[in-house]
Design a protein that fits this description.
Layout (H helix, E strand, L loop, with lengths): L18 H37 L5 H11 L3 H12 L18 H11 L12 H18 L4 H10 L1 H13 L12 H20 L8
Length: about 210
């Protein structure tokens, strides 16, 4: 006789949902996210400052503002020249230029005579205040020489007045307007472009420190 059919398989009991655990987990994740947001907001100025210190440093803002005001210069231009020359890390160059704004001794002596300074010594260029004073004076002198044209003045700051005068004469002879793209020295052209970009960056990033606000 055929044995009776086996009893139907019993379904395994489903585990009760751990609603309490899931709720606590979600709450914990939400609290962590909120905490990270708060920390991020609080630390953002510190991160931004650290980033700027590494990528767009600024020191001696008070001296820059003072000299820019006295020489009728854009303070961001002074800061941009310092950044391009030394990134605010004063050191002598291979060519013998000194200090934050990399002023050659013969240029400094010329500026000292022109400004009426009687106690100037080349070693004074190691002093940041003196260096920024002479560098700002030189920028003002070059802007006056070239009719306020920043491109030409910056080209002269880097490439020298003799070269710039020759380039200007060549441009006039060819009936062309002298622009940054007509600078024949790649190094000087790159220098001028870098200063102009840094000038915009300093004006935007350090508006309050440089006196725009």
């Amino acid at each position: 006789m055929t044995p009776p059919a086996a009893t139907a398989a019993v379904r395994p009991r489903s585990r009760p949902r751990r609603r309490g655990v899931n709720w606590r987990r979600r709450l914990g994740l939400s609290l962590i996210a909120a905490l990270l947001t708060v920390v991020g907001i609080l630390c953002l100025p510190l991160f931004r400052r650290a980033y700027n210190d590494l990528n767009l440093p600024l020191s001696y803002a008070g001296i820059i503002r003072q000299q820019a005001a006295e020489k009728h210069l854009d303070p961001a231009l002074v800061a941009a020249v310092i950044y391009t020359e030394t990134k605010f890390d004063s050191r002598p160059s291979v060519a013998g230029a000194e200090g934050l704004m990399q002023i050659l001794p013969q240029t400094a002596e010329f500026l000292a005579r022109r400004s009426g300074a009687t106690t100037f010594r080349v070693s004074d260029l190691e002093n940041p205040a003196v260096n920024i004073t002479y560098g700002s004076y030189y920028l003002r002198y070059l802007l006056n020489e070239y009719g306020g044209n920043e491109v030409v003045a910056l080209a002269a700051y880097n490439g020298g007045e003799t070269n710039v005068n020759r380039w200007l004469d060549a441009a006039r002879g060819a009936g062309k307007t002298f622009t940054v793209w007509r600078i024949p020295f790649p190094q000087t052209q790159a220098y001028v472009l870098k200063v102009m970009q840094a000038q915009r960056d300093y004006r935007k990033t350090y508006a309050s420190q440089l006196g725009y606000q």
